[in-house]
Amino acid sequence: MSTKTPSEADILRPVNNVSKKYFMLFGAAALALGAFLVAWMYQLANGMAVTGLSDWGSGGGVTWGLYIGAFIWWVGIAHGGIILSAAVRLLDMDRYMPVARLAELLTIAGLSAAGFYILVHMGRPDRMVTSVLGHYHITVNNSPLVWDVTVITAYFVLTATYLALTLRYDITRLRDQLPDHFEPFYKVMTLGYTKDEDEVVERMVWWLALAIIIMAPLLLHGGVIPWLFAVLPGMPGWFSAVQGPQFLTIALTSAISGVIIVAAAFRRAYDWDHIMTDDVFRGLLLWLGFFSLLFLWLQLQQNVVGLFKAPVNVGVAQQATLAHPLYQLSMGLVFLTLAFIFAQTIRPSLFSRTRAIVAAFAVLTGTLIEKILFVVEGFFHPTFEIYAATPGEYFPSAIEWLSLVGTTGLVVLIFLVVSKLVPVVELHAVEHLRGDHGHGHDTDESETTKEVKA
Amino acid sequence: MSTDDESFHPLGNEWEGELEEMLDDTEYDSDLGMKMAQDAMRVTKGELSEAEFHEMYHDDVMEEFGVDDRPTEAAYEQAQEEQKGTATRMLEAFEGDGEESRRETMKKMGVGAAAVGLGAWGTVDDGPEANLAAADDHSSYGKVENDGTQLGMVIDLERCDGCLSCVAACQEENQTDQGVNWMYVLDYEEPDGDNSGSRNRLVRPCQHCTDAPCEKVCPTTARHTRDKDGLVLTDYDVCIGCRYCQVACPYGVNYFQWDEPSVSTDEIKQTADDMGMDGDHMTDHRDRWVDSRAPRGVMSKCTMCPTRQDGHMGDEKVGTTACEDACPPEAINFGDMNDPESKPQQYLTNVVQTRAERMVDGQSPNRENVQESYNFLEGDVELLEMEYLEDGDHDEIQAALFIQGELAESELTLEDEELREVVIDIIGDADALAELEDEELGTLADVLLGDASEGDVDSDDLDAANTAIDAVITDAEEGVQAVVDRYESREITPAEVEESLALLDGEEEPWVSEAGITDEGSAQNVLEAYAGGEASTFKLLEDVGTNPNVTYIGNEPGPEAEQVEGPVAYSDIGGTDNRKDVLDEKTVGDAGVSL
Ligand code: SF4
Ligand code: SF4
Predict the structure, then answer these.
(1) Which N-terminal stretch is annotated as signal sequence (chain B) (predicted)?
(2) Left, alpha or beta for B534 (phi > 0: left; psi -120 to 50: alpha)?
């Protein structure tokens, strides 16, 4: 463990310094996003035929593919992120305070990527507003897709509010050390701020966190998103009550992995080994192990139920899934990660940050593959599998693959930009790490901090 | 599903146990009930007649219930005059679907018959095999659920030839792209079933479901049900192309417009104008763009031709679809599924009759032909006046009669040259004259016609030629006799079929002679032998709860059925079966592999 004491200067370092490496990364991310934007324009100009998709049935393909798989994956990361951050706040898991804001930013970035995928996936994205909003009052009663869009928007707003509230506190206190050229932004962010609101905000944030945790199983990745699939009886690969919990475990494993990677990147870039300590990584890894276990357990449930003596359609679908090499690869990745995590709990010397990062990448790859395959396999084995062209064929086209690169670029860009605007580690976290997280009232405590600085 | 051999009911032991329990709950003798139930099943299987069944239990029932209200009463009374229908059919008289009414009905109609009746009502939850009792119960379909019009189809799979005419007609009418097979016809095989005998073919339009999942999931209301007639349509101006409808539809009938369609809207409009349509073949009576192929980026599927239904193609096209019009054996019957008088519902009520009517249309020898044959044999009509000749050609007969001197030159309708040709044809076919050159045949003909002298030809040849001429007449006469013989031997000819149809239709004496079909029992047998016995009806994936509005007659594909090649390939009609073959050409970086 580092002996350095975390300071305001530490968390302000990303805001006030730019390096060549930063520009290089920025350039690469922008290029990735730009490349996909061009590809998307091409898709808009030529139609969705540029993808590897087709109609299921006599059309010999799958209706939804990588776009939707990646959409769920990003939403999962996003939803897991906000659940993580809410849990930290709600349960006072102070250990993870330094990564709480990163998790929230991951939510914003993940939702942006997911929202982008909705547009990319559509045949007529230009009609999103008129067609969807125009009939919202009717469709919200039936369409899981409308629920999805509603919930994603709601969570975007919720997370943004949540983030903004905690940022006001930090910006006010650190204003002097923040760059002047963003003055208007800080002005807006701290509009009407009074010290009295701290207490209220803290309570609000707590309630928001509670709301998020309570609604997580229902409205986030445990409900609305899986319902997009789980409620359709014509597709036995999806039609299952286990999808809700299953999606939730995937969301959480993906999000923890995402946070591990982002935290490791920041730690490395800004010498934050005393803020994002190994201890944080060990803790995150343990949680990753726990949710990986749940993930595998629910997969097991699906397989046993689907293979033992299932109705023909369910059996066929499950058999095909289990036999698919990519499914095995995905399960293998998660299983190996789980094995490693357990091993390093028993024998702490097995831990290293690099290994943690490898584990995180393994899980993210595993969940992405699982998600894409989940979508595709649903179409491959519908109940009405009579067509010679079913199961069909599908392989993502170059444009679809590029979308993964592009959205990853988008997420990186969001982190890069935000890190130049505001501290990505909360002031609270630093205060806490420094040990001056008094037992008294937070406001008093931060007041002193401010005075000291002044 | 457990269909145990020892269980009398097709739903198996479990169901039987349940029934027994139900019977125990009632105040009546459950042993008697079970025994009656077993025999009632025998009635549905045809091992026992309804009248016999009624008689067997009449005393017991009177003793137990004090009244014998069983529907078989009617059968008992009508047994002599009407032999069609089964116990199940009789049970329809008792309406009922809820648990309560089942119980009430049970008491009312006698528990034994109830066992059969319940089998029929239990259709919703059971697979096709389970519904032996329900199989014949066509009229349970299309029970009027609402007053409004609900367009749909009754498709007789036993009649479908797999010619793909409907597929082609749909594609032409709606100008859809290659592989966009709104109408799709497929042959299939069951994995371990017997695939030899009956036809395994499916005609698959959109089912225009009453509870359409595609509509339920649509985030824009683009997919909607038209109030006027219950058609499930897509508003091409509203759809955002999310494709959720295609995901939610269990039948795979949706086709997305992945790229620019090959026919422009201008061309569609032009075609509509050229055909004198009262509209552009795209917008329906509400001014919504729901017909013809979809524009890029939105969803399409079978529409059941709203342009026709709205009268834009003339009154005679209202109530028809392009596929229906195109189907040579008339397997597709389109119309209001809520109207018992509609084409599809009428077809359902009388599958065998309707099928037979259509099959026999234009076939010979029909009743008139047989009548004529009788008339000839009785000397009331000349051979040459006969309209129908089974064996013989009017021209040849004319020539032969002329040569035999039975016909005056003035009575000839053939020109000299034609006459000569006909004669050459007749004698040229004779085996004995097969060796002769054309010229020699010509001379022979001239001799026969009196235009040359007998000395010009070999006398053996002349004899053979005369024999051939005589044979024309005798063959024709024998043909006429054969028509009557076949009729009297009750071989199933169109005449018998017509008689049977007329008889069952209530006509008093439709037969040509007493040797024909004179009783309803035989009539029914004739029709079944001719048009196939009443096959069972089904709706696709009924337990998914979509409430489809297409009812099929024929074999229901099982869960493991797999498509095989049909008699006609999609390429034969200029179409494409697997659309992916077309779409792959536009895929950017098509890797040629699959997940
Ligand atoms: S078959 Fe039913 S669910 Fe499928 S598209 Fe037609 S109406 Fe919709
Ligand atoms: S593709 Fe169009 S019609 Fe289908 S669900 Fe989406 S918006 Fe509705």
Answers:
(1) none
(2) beta
Residue type, A419: S
**Chain A 302-331, residues with CB within 8 Å of chain B CB atoms:** 311-313, 324, 326
What is the nearest CA distance from B308 to chain A, expressed in angstroms? Answer: 26
pLDDT band at B412 (very low <50, low <70, confident <90, very high): confident
Band (A431; pLDDT cuts 50, 70, 90):
confident
**Alpha carbon distance A75, A58 (integer Å):** 31
Domains and CATH numbers, chain A: 8-434 (1.20.1630.10)
> Which residues of A are less than 8 Å from B171 in CB distance?
none
Do residue A387 and residue B186 have CB atoms under 8 angstroms apart? yes
CA atoms within 13 A on the CB side of A64: 29
CB pair distance less than 8 Å for B587 and A50:
yes
First to last CA, chain B: 35
Coil, strand or helix: which one is A86?
A: helix
B594 shares contact with chain A (CB less than 8 Å):
yes
SS3 B484: helix
Name residue B234's beta-bridge partners: B223
Q: How confident is the model at residue B64 (pLDDT cuts 50, 70, 90)?
A: low
CB A114 within 8 A of CB A251: no
Please state the three-class secondary structure of B377-431 as a single string: HCCCCCHHHCCCCCCCCHHHHHHHHHHCCCCCHHHCCCCHHHHHHHHHHHHHCCH
Pocket test for ligand 1, best of B215, B225, B249, B549 (most atoms within 8 A of CB): B249
Query: CB–CB of B114/B308 below 8 Å?
Result: no
Which pLDDT does position A338 carry in this prediction? 96
Residue B569 Cβ contacting ligand 2 at under 6 Å: no
Nearest CA in chain B to A379: B247
Pocket of ligand 1 (CB under 6 A): B 206-209, 212-214, 232, 249, 251, 253-254, 301, 546
Give the mutation candidate from B578, B585, B586 for the A interface (greatest A CB count, under 10 A): B578
How many angstroms is it from B256 CA to the middle of ligand 1?
Answer: 14
Helix B494-504 and helix B351-360, axial crossing angle in degrees, nearest 10: 140
What is the ipTM, given to two decimal places?
Answer: 0.91
Distance CA(B38)–CA(B113), nearest Å, equals: 9
For B372, other C-beta atoms within 10 Å of its C-beta total 22
Contact A389 B241 (CB under 8 A): no
Residue with tokens 């595998």: A296
Please indicate whether, in this complex, the C-beta atoms of A382 and B545 are within 8 angstroms of each other: no
Query: Residue B95: its pLDDT value, please?
Result: 36
Residue A442 is predicted with a pLDDT of 42
Are A415 and A262 within 8 A, CB to CB? Answer: yes
What is the Cα–Cα distance from B278 to B286, expressed in whole angstroms? 14
Reported as type and span, the H/E element at residue B203 is strand B201-204
Q: CA distances (Å), B441 to each of A3, B246, B448, B450, in order?
A: 125, 71, 10, 14
Per-residue pLDDT of B574-585, as tens digits, reads 999 999 999 999
The answer to whether the beta carbons of residues B200 and B184 sit under 8 Å apart is no
Residue B377 CA, distance from chain mean position: 37
CB atoms within 10 A of CB B40: 32
- Residue B413: beta bridge partners? none
Q: What is the pLDDT of residues B491-508, one digit of tens each?
A: 889 999 999 999 998 898
Q: Where are the alpha helices (DSSP H) in A274-324?
A: 278-308, 312-323
Q: Is A142 an interface residue toward B (CB < 8 Å)?
A: yes
Nearest CA in chain A to B254: A55
Mean pLDDT value across residues A176-191: 90
